[in-house]
Design goal:
Structural class: alpha/beta
Distance between the termini: 39 Å
Strand order of the largest sheet: 5-4-1-6-7
Strand content: 5-15%
Largest sheet: 5 strands, parallel
Shape: elongated
Number of helices: 29
Length: 643
């Protein structure tokens, strides 16, 4: 495997030059990463697993077990220090501090340590790029050692390595674990290693994740070291996504932890393509490390639902449809599911303006609001009207910028037969063209479901289009798959829209849906193509698009974000496995995705605010109006994800 991690390149070059005789690698959260945000989270996951398998005492919660397990470790270290002067202990020493009453009567003592080891092994993921660096070290005639502060024995550590897929034991010349040497890294383990190998500090280079155990001891000894920081990709992920509140944290992690996604994100952030221009690396990294879990989980769910429904084709709608089609198509391939994705040009503007009927003008106000234009002439033309006739009906010049102008326009159209007829006739023409364009993709007279997908959040397009199709005698039924749906979507659901959302675990009134509804949002930006929005279909059934008002630099940055997401998608699908290993509807994964979205929008970094937050998004009404993410005013306390 080629080394792409920017942090490892200097070490690779140093080893090639023969500058170091020994490559030292920390094990946990470096060579191996756990499927939990922090090491102690293993105890929460273990407690949940023990409860699920009836191995925990019925009166004890997983949270209580985690607290007792943590306390037992501290107590075992205190006991060891009092007896030997060293705080190093084994896993058996720790479990000796846990009373039998913690466990179910049917769970014997000799199986308890094994249960934790099984849990640890199930949560390990191998960092293949570190392995590649180790191979490079050996090829450069350097020695490779593994070093760990741990209560696990060297045998236990080797079992963890093998279970994670590290099978080339010949790469490792020595393994040092603190509990067997009786020396922790932060005190004197590195001194012992230097003496044991008979080398100077300048001959050793070390990689590790812990500032106190890996970096400071090396720096004080003149050992060159690399801080393989797990959280450098996002302090927000550590501080906000995973709450310090243990109850909320347990709800997020469940029995599978974070699925390895935190460790993956921290690595993806540093693994942008070597030929990518430096200004674009930031945007690529944002897509890969922040947005990959969101889109990977959403795409897997879409594939799953389509498979369950027997759907072989799904349409991505709006400007987001092209990118959604790409990620769903790639995920279907990764999961071995036969599913075709297609882009279908639709927009609220196109369907609402085509949904006015002689006996149903209920969407007139919305149609006026969706009529594009830089001035009143263009706006009125989008309704099939002329300024002069509207001025006559209003008995005053129509002023687009006057407060209440749009409401007054809707009222005068509804009350003036000739204006009403012209608007209805124009809508009929738009409707005919719309259906002509859709028919090029879909046989509307063929009975069955047509599956569409979008981010959401009210399912307006699907609801209005379904109304049009029913009135026009079409036989197809629309089924919509969305990331999130809000309270307006609940009304559409009650009116008969066949819709469902991936993030449905908090209902329609979820904080994530409320936040995403305050567009523009980063997810929408990340999905968009470079073209402008659909205005309408032409008489020949071809999409007529509005002009794109975003700069070339913004489009290039958005493309870099998408490339980052796509690069992370395959890695995420590989990590999550097939839909049997990680079912698409797992609640803890949904909760984690919600936490990523809400915290990213509520707590952007200064750099995110100044870059992505400055991106423009065209407004629905008045084409010259462009909105920025940074324009939003949000009540973070009201919208923050609470678990």
């Amino acid at each position: 495997m080629t080394i792409t991690d920017q942090r490892l390149l200097s070490i690779r070059d140093s080893l090639s030059a023969g500058s170091h005789k020994v490559l030292s690698v920390d094990i946990f959260d470096t060579l191996l990463w756990r499927c939990v945000p922090e090491p102690n989270d293993v105890f929460l996951v273990l407690g949940q697993q023990l409860q699920n398998s009836a191995r925990l005492s019925p009166h004890l919660s997983p949270l209580a077990f985690a607290e007792l397990r943590h306390s037992a470790q501290a107590k075992a270290r205190e006991r060891a220090f009092a007896a030997t002067g060293s705080r190093e202990v084994s896993l058996s020493d720790i479990y000796a501090e846990l009373p039998n009453s913690i466990f179910a009567d049917s769970f014997p003592p000799d199986r308890r340590v094994l249960a934790e080891l099984d849990c640890e092994r199930s949560l390990m993921v191998l960092d293949e790029e570190i392995v590649s660096l180790m191979r490079h070290a050996k090829a450069s005639a350097a020695c490779v050692i593994l070093v760990s502060d741990t209560y696990l024995s060297s045998q236990n550590v080797n079992e963890c390595l093998r279970s994670a897929g590290f099978l080339d034991e010949g790469l490792v010349d020595r393994l040092y674990v603190s509990c067997e040497e009786g020396k922790p890294k932060y005190l004197d383990l590195f001194d012992f290693i230097l003496n044991d190998l008979g080398i100077s500090s300048e001959s050793l280079i070390h990689i590790g994740d812990n500032p106190d155990a890996d970096i400071l001891p090396c720096q004080t000894r003149g050992i060159e070291c690399l801080h393989y920081d797990k959280w450098s990709f996002s302090e927000r992920a550590q501080a906000r996504e995973f709450h310090s509140d243990r109850v909320t944290r347990l709800a997020l992690l469940g029995s599978k932890g974070d699925y390895g996604l935190t460790g993956l994100r921290s690595r993806l952030y540093h693994r942008s393509p070597e030929d990518l221009e430096n200004p674009q690396r930031y945007y690529w990294g944002y897509g890969a490390s922040v947005l990959t879990p969101v889109f990977a989980s959403f795409a897997r769910w879409i594939v799953h639902v389509c498979q369950e429904r027997g759907a072989k084709r799904v349409f991505g709608i709006m400007r987001e449809g092209r990118f959604l089609s790409r990620i769903v198509e790639e995920s279907a391939k990764d999961l071995g599911v036969d599913l075709v994705t297609e882009e279908l040009w639709l927009s609220r503007r196109a369907v609402i303006r085509a949904a006015l009927f002689p006996d149903d003008m209920s969407l007139l106000s919305e149609a006026i609001g969706m009529s594009p234009g830089k001035d009143k002439g263009e706006v009125l033309c989008g309704l099939g009207l002329e300024a002069a006739e509207v001025d006559v009906a209003l008995q005053a010049p129509f002023d687009l910028n006057h407060p209440g102008a749009l409401a007054a326009l809707a009222q005068v159209i509804a009350q003036t037969p000739i204006l009403r007829k012209k608007v209805v006739d124009y809508s009929s023409r738009l409707r005919r063209n719309l259906l002509s364009g859709i028919t090029k993709k879909i046989d509307l007279m063929q009975e069955g479901d047509v599956v569409v997908m979008d981010l959401g959040y009210a399912a307006t397009i699907q609801t209005v289009l379904a109304r049009i199709l029913e009135r026009e005698g079409a036989r197809v039924k629309l089924h919509g798959l969305y990331l999130a749906l809000n309270t307006n979507a609940a009304d559409n659901f009650l009116s008969g829209s066949d819709i469902q959302a991936y993030l449905d675990h908090e209902g329609f009134n979820a904080s994530v849906a409320a936040l995403l509804s305050r567009t523009p949002d980063i997810l929408e930006h990340a999905c968009m193509c470079s073209e402008g929005s659909l205005s309408e279909y032409t008489d020949s059934g071809e999409p007529e698009l509005l002009p794109n008002l975003r700069s070339e630099s913004q489009l290039s940055q958005m493309c870099a974000v998408q490339d980052g997401i796509l690069a992370g998608l395959g890695a995420a699908n590989c990590l999550l496995g097939d839909l049997t290993k990680t079912p698409a509807g797992e609640l803890s994964l949904k909760r984690q995705v919600s936490a990523i979205i809400t915290t990213a929008l509520l707590y952007p970094t200064r750099q995110e605010s100044e870059t992505i937050g400055a991106w423009y998004h065209e407004a629905n009404f008045n084409l010259s109006d462009r909105r920025q993410l940074s324009d939003l005013v949000i009540d973070t306390a009201a919208l923050e994800y609470k678990g």
